[in-house]
Design a protein that fits this description.
alpha+beta; five-stranded mixed beta sheet; about 30% helix; about 45% strand; elongated
Amino acid sequence: MCALDFRRACPKVLFMRYIRLSVFLTLLIVAWSTVAQQQSTSPTATVTKYCQLDFNGARTRSETFEKLDHMVLWHTEPGWDVARLVRSYKIVSVRTTGTRSAVTVEYDVIGDVEGGEQLTKNPHKERVVFSLELGDKEWVWHGENPVLVKSGRAWRIKSPVQKPTTAR
């Protein structure tokens, strides 16, 4: 049994308290850093990743659209009969106010491909403004139904829902 001055009488108790406190603080720091990482995703990073996946053809097939689900606020991708063929893209401006952001992307367009076969050449520069919101909801699929659920806080693209813009 411990005496009133337990620091000298019960070193095992002190050691166990020290271990518990250390474990608690470690878990707290890990949890805090995970939340901070989720919140630190920027509108620029979100649009860059979206454009990169789109450029590589992720939006041209329904099997690969799920790679983009967590980045957008629409729950289904339309069945596109046309895709925009581009040479390159770049972010030209970002404007953020609170939980809303506008990211402007400039595409170097080659033309449109209809039905996966016929290329209609129309070389030009085109600017698209992506509207984003910082929030904690995203669409997930439960069976065949989309459901809006609470998720990690992140920037997600609200609009526009435009035809696929790909290099393929």
